[in-house]
Amino acid sequence: MLQRNLDTFYWVATLKSFRKAAEKLFLTQPAISARIASLEENLNVALFDREGRSIQLTPHGRKLLVYAEKFIRLEEALLRDFGQQSGAGAALRVGVSETLATTWFPEFLARLSNERPAVSMEIHVDATSVLREQLVQREIDLACLMGPVSDSSICNLELCQFEMAFVAVPKLSALHKSWSCAALAAQPLLTFASNTRPHRELLELLSGPDLPALKMTSASSLSTLTKLVREGVGLGVLPLAAVAGEIESGSLCVLKTDLQLNAIGFTASYAMSPFSSVPADVAKAAQAFLKPKLIKKIYRK
Asked: Between 275 and 100, where is the model more confident?
């Protein structure tokens, strides 16, 4: 309770606004006021001068702000120093998109567990839209997703990009030596969900008065899309690295076309918090892990 109320006090004092603190912490203003009132009651002092349109710290409030900042730094040092020695780690809730979960993330996680054994994790694999909402609502601490996340309280570190390509089973790919826009649009297309950037860009590229009406099947699950493509249901518009094994085995082929697909970018996104540096540390570790594996920001499996 004290930590939660100190966190709230810190943001109200820093932002000089109950409304801005509520937006920052995704709480209602009454909830913010209740936390501050509880803190003032416990300490038996007034922390804010609420007269006028702006709020100011009282002398007690200024004194408490120093303690709050020291408390934050002390907790970070405790987790960093004693957590590693005792094996009692910080529980980190991490959301990962399926594209990353099926490519480089398991290798990164194995390395991280060796380098930082004190950090325990809860891994959630889900669609980017779900992870974004969970992060904003503070249901997870760190999200590796198709980003960035446009929110003032979220930090985004660029991780990597994935090349996109049209892929199909050999029987379908043999229909054309070179696939025109009309030929592509005439086939059923399978790609990411309709609220994603790849889906919207595909609609823009293959929609027009001279082109056939598109028949698109979308899904948030990459494994489901890959299975449908392998069954010959249609042409997949998928990250190359995610189907590298199928392409190498010959079960899927990359279609030759002059149509340029944009790469999709991924970020490690986390909520800024004065109480823990663990999400930021893990995000930076992921960025460092990927750096030698990228060619012009593109990850290739």
From this structure: 100
pLDDT-derived band at 172 (thresholds 50, 70, 90) equals: very high
**Angstrom distance (rounded) from CA 125 to CA 99:** 9
Residues contacting 271, CB < 8 A, separation 6+:
135, 138, 141, 153, 154, 155, 279
Q: Which domains does the chain have, with CATH numbers?
A: 2-84 (1.10.10.10), 89-162+265-299 (3.40.190.10), 164-262 (3.40.190.10)
Nearest Cα to 45, choosing from 18, 30, 65, 23?
65
pLDDT tens-digit readout, 103-153 = 999 999 999 888 887 778 889 999 898 999 888 878 888 999 998 988 777
Share of the chain above pLDDT 90, in %: 49
* Residue 273 Cα distances to 69, 98, 115, 280, 282, angstroms: 12, 26, 23, 9, 14
Quote the CA–CA distance of 85 and 17 in Å, as a whole number.
40
Buried-state track 269-281, b at ≥16 Cβ within 10 A, e below 16: bbbebbbbbbbbb
Separation of alpha carbons 4 and 275, rounded Å: 10
pTM over 0.90: no
Q: Please check the confidence at residue 250 and state whether its pLDDT lies above 50.
A: yes
Parallel/antiparallel/unpaired status of strands 189-192 and 216-219: parallel
Q: How far apart are CA 274 and CA 3, in angstroms?
A: 11
Taking CA atoms, 137 is separated from 25, 26, 33, 154, in Å, by: 9, 7, 19, 11
The whole-number pLDDT of residue 79 equals: 58
